[in-house]
Design a protein that fits this description.
- By secondary structure, the protein is of the alpha+beta class.
- Helix content is 18%, strand content 38%.
- It has one domain.
- It has 1 helix and 5 strands; from the N terminus they run E-E-E-E-E-H.
- The protein is globular and about 35 Å long.
Length: 100
């Protein structure tokens, strides 16, 4: 296991209203040459349901007009469904059903 796997990554994002919200990246995947992040609000880890699960958002990594990395929402339903399937498969593989 490399050290990065033990590190938690947090991002402060700005919503449409200009409010800043801190998110934790819980997954990263590439599909069709595009990088996507699965993220949860930073306080959501403490507020998961009885099963410890909380919903995540999917954001696409893009370059802005200045060449800076930026995260944008995935508005296309088909694109969202496809990458959500990738993350769902990734997260289901991480669940230890045996308790070991």
């Amino acid at each position: 296991m490399n050290e990065r796997e033990n590190e938690r990554e947090f991002y402060t994002l700005v919503d449409e209203d200009g409010s800043e919200i801190e998110f934790e990246k819980i997954g990263e995947a590439e599909m069709g040459g595009v990088t996507y992040f699965a993220m949860i609000p930073a306080d959501a880890a403490d507020q998961g349901g009885d099963d410890g699960f909380c919903e995540y958002v999917v954001l696409r990594l893009e370059k802005d007009e200045n060449g800076e990395d930026t995260l944008v929402s995935v508005d296309d339903d088909e694109e969202f469904d496809n990458i959500a399937d990738v993350f769902d498969d990734m997260f289901s593989e991480e669940i230890d059903y045996d308790g070991n």
